[in-house]
Amino acid sequence: QSVLTQPPSVSAAPGQKVTISCSGSSSNIGNNYVSWYQQLPGTAPKLLIYDNNKRPSGIPDRFSGSKSGTSATLGITGLQTGDEADYYCGTWDSSLSAAVFGGGTKLTVL
Amino acid sequence: QVQLVQSGAEVKKPGSSVKVSCKASGGTFSSYTISWVRQAPGQGLEWMGRIIPILGIANYAQKFQGRVTITADKSTSTAYMELSSLRSEDTAVYYCARVAPISSAFDIWGQGTMVTVSS
What we know:
The complex is a heterodimer of chains A (110) and B (119). In chain A, the strands form two sheets. In chain A, strands 1, 3, 4, 7, 8 and 9 form a six-stranded mixed β-sheet that branches. In chain A, β5 and β6 (71-76) form a beta hairpin. With 110 residues, chain A is an all-beta fold. Chain A is built from no helices and nine strands. Chain A has strands at 9-12, 18-23, 35-39, 46-49, 63-68, 71-76, 85-93, 98-101, 105-109. Chain A starts with 8 loop residues before the first strand and ends with a strand. In chain B, the strands form two sheets. In chain B, strands 2, 4, 5, 6, 9, 10 and 11 form a seven-stranded mixed β-sheet that branches. Chain B has strands at residues 3-6, 10-12, 18-25, 33-39, 45-52, 57-60, 68-73, 78-83, 92-99, 106-109, 113-117. With 119 residues, chain B is mainly beta. In chain B, a hairpin with a 6-residue loop joins β9 (92-99) and β10 (106-109). Chain A binds chain B through residues 2, 32-33, 35, 37, 44-47, 50-51, 54, 56, 88, 90-92, 96-104, and chain B through 35, 37, 44-47, 50, 59, 61-62, 95, 97, 100, 103-107, 109-112.
């Protein structure tokens, strides 16, 4: 059971937009930065978004992040078949003194 | 560009220990924080702990307290994660990851090490 809550799966057609939610509490998302990771099958996670809404160099602006209160959202526009992957949110939990992740969301591009 | 290269796959018996290495190339290893994250088959990511090599200080997730030891050798730019009293539930891919210098995010990941615990 993950500390952060994500939907198990989302789907959309190529070219469309999708959002993935991540819900937490005041001890984690509410008072710490959120990051998002993309994990393609059989590979290590890759950082997509850090500090709630910043993109590392090389990450296209089709990927965006936002945070409000104790929830965060990852948005992906112009969906491509290559975006099919598992997506994880993560942050620090001040009560647990530990990094925590969501359970992951599987994105299917129909 | 910093890269993290991990040691190869391991097969262990229940009750034994495993030690996984994570060698950094490029950059200043000692000034980074290195975390260990594991992923059981078909499951999500689970943080195990971290170390700041320059200080030699490690912190662990409560779940793994007493069973995991994270160390770092500055002379070889290598971090290690040792997990003891292995059980079948410890079968997973173990990743090392660097904490970004100006953020708390994990910006660089090792390729992962599969550890299988089986009798």
